[in-house]
What we know:
Blueprint: E1 4-10, E2 14-19, H1 25-38, H2 51-61, E3 66-68, H3 73-84, E4 89-93, H4 104-112, E5 116-119, E6 128-131, E7 138-143, H5 148-157, E8 165-170, H6 176-188, E9 193-196, E10 199-202, H7 218-230, E11 233-238, H8 252-255, E12 261-266, E13 269-274, E14 283-287, H9 295-305, E15 308-312, H10 324-332, E16 338-342, E17 346-350, E18 359-362, H11 368-374, E19 383-386, H12 399-405, E20 408-414
Parallel strand pairs: 2-11, 3-4, 7-8, 14-15, 18-19
Antiparallel strand pairs: 1-19, 1-20, 4-6, 5-6, 8-10, 9-10, 11-13, 12-13, 15-17, 16-17
Helix pairs in contact: 1-2, 1-3, 1-6, 3-5, 4-5, 5-6, 7-9, 9-11
Amino acid sequence: MSRLKAQVKISNKDINGKLKLSGSKSISNRLLIMQALSASKAELKNLSDSDDTIIMKQALASELKLVDIGMTGTAMRFLTAYFAIQNRETILSGAPRMKKRPIKDLVNALRELGADISYLEKEGFPPLKISGKELEGGTIVMQSSISSQFISALLMIAPLMKKGLQLRLDGELLSRPYIQMTLSLMQEQGINYTWEDNLIQVEAGSYQNTIASVESDWSSISYIYEVLALADSGKIEIESVDENSVQGDQKLMEFFKHFGISSAIENSILKIEKEANFILPASLEIDCEATPDLAQTFAPTACALGVHLKMTGLKNLPFKESNRLEAIKLELEKIGATTNIIDNEALEIIPGADFSQLNLEFDTHHDHRMALSLAPLALKAKHLIINDAEVVNKSYKSFWKDLGKLSFDITFVED
């Protein structure tokens, strides 16, 4: 099957424009699970138009025994828990890469709560056979260092368990904002919980389905910040942005101050501007433990601006759609950067020489965030190609169209 390459050019590097991004993928996927658990037919407005959310909707609506979620890791985790309490038998499978992503910790926790789940191929990995039933609930202990999506998956079905859930987290907690996002959305939907120290308690109850609209996606917004940081000057406005967002990635407003971008939210409109005559830091260290999805935005931004960057808190990056540590290293070395992976959980990036006369061709490693974060480098290169350009559909379907609104010239050719 042929894939599309995107040839990305830009001549006007004074970037100005107005955009409206679709709803947050993280929020959309959580609300779809909660909506299904409430049996509500109400329509959610501004749902993410990402492939991940479309696949989640299709899976929840499917009455087939085999549910294939392709490359959608969120769906694999959330649906494993969801189908564990449905009165049906489900085979939950995915793409070859998905079958290499571990799910043992989640399955073990669900089994401890009474779920009937078995592995159909390799122990500890999808595909799964799930015989759904009502779960008793109660107290379990999980390692805090595992994927936050495992924890969120359990929390969302907790109100439907007879005894609710008392979840004790053991060890260092990764991606806390994503767990807090889940709990905040549940609370807005009428679910009672407490979180004290390392113990999360969710009471038995029912979802009220009170949320009508989804706020814009901050992970997607990060690439617009990157565009402005690499531009000569400019101002951009983005609609449907919640000032009190439940998304941890809103922290990028603070992070991008280091790259000379000022931000303000007024009447749900985010206004970002490149500061004139801003003096960039020679080096920068960022802890991405709470915001791992932003690592791929920060890396090329810093590299293109000549900032020596060290990012920590990246333990989960090797287990995403690609091994993101290796993928970042391979692609940034194409622009002369020296990249060091430290203990498989941190990344140091030392910028190379000027690459403004280079013709660049980047591989995406089948990872949407690689394409999304590398495309803005067209602002600093002579000519740029992104292979497998359609991979952006996984999370940000209108990305190429939005770049076009910001003066980029995008041409697609078959590979």
